[in-house]
Amino acid sequence: MSDVHAPAHRHGHGLIDPSIKRSRAGIRAVGRSLAVLSATAAIQAAIYVTTSSVALLADLIHNFGDALTAIPLATAFLLRSPRAERWAGYAVVFAIFVSACVAAGEAVNRLLNPEPIEHLLALALGGLVGFAGNEAAASMRLRAGRALDSPALVADGRHARADAIVSLAVVVTALVVALGANAADPVIGLMITFVILRITWQSWRTIRSGHAD
Q1: pLDDT tens for each residue of the chain, 213 residues long
Q2: How many separate domains does the chain show?
Q3: Which of 107, 123, 193, 212 could disulfide-link 154, Cβ–Cβ 3.0 to 4.6 Å?
Q4: Is residue 8 part of a domain?
């Protein structure tokens, strides 16, 4: 009698609910990207302390805020709730939209009130660090989001990729300003805004469709 039930027991002992596997994989991906973005922000903070570059400070604050988007996503995966995951996705889209508004406001302010940009080498270095960190986080989130069919995680990956473009644009700004074109700073800022708004729309469509494409 015991022999009859033994195989079933051995078979069931190793089973793990697929939702638990998905939850663990999602939390792992979000956690790794959070670690990368936190390290990026820490390095940029160290550079800011030595340079006091306002542009670098803005990018630093932006990247730190983006790292915090991992909190609603991790919570949603922990709860193993599709509804919570969708609302986490909407929170990420809102964060992208706010980023666009902040970038637009800063660009318009610089157009109306031009200011000389200093510490260009440090600014470029900080931008490169931001680009590398955000691109790494974007790759992690997009790869995991598509594997887990998580529109929210895909949207956050696109968010990180948009931030990588923002940081790279900071490097371009430093190079162009070094050549004497100070007006390039707000102009590139407006271009960044349009890029972020486009990714906002793409992310919104991803969340609404419910499919990680």
Answers
A1: 444 444 444 444 444 446 666 778 888 888 888 899 889 989 988 887 877 666 677 677 767 767 776 777 777 777 777 777 678 778 777 877 876 787 778 778 777 887 777 778 888 998 999 999 999 999 998 998 888 888 878 877 887 887 888 788 778 878 888 888 777 777 877 777 777 787 778 777 766 765 555
A2: 1
A3: 212
A4: no
In angstroms, the CA 67 to CA 178 distance is 30
Residue 4 lies in a domain: no
User: In terms of Cα–Cα distance, which of 91, 167, 182, 99 is closest to 133?
Assistant: 167
Contacts of 49 (CB under 8 A, 6+ apart): none
CA separation for the pair 141, 152 (Å, rounded): 10
Range of the domain at 197: 19-209
d(CA 85, CA 153): 9
Instruction: Flag whether 6 is in a domain.
Output: no
CA 68/CA 98 separation, integer angstroms: 14
Q: Does some domain include residue 77? A: yes
CATH number reported for the structural domain that contains residue 127 in this entry: 1.20.1510
| Residue in the block written with tokens 């803005």 | 58
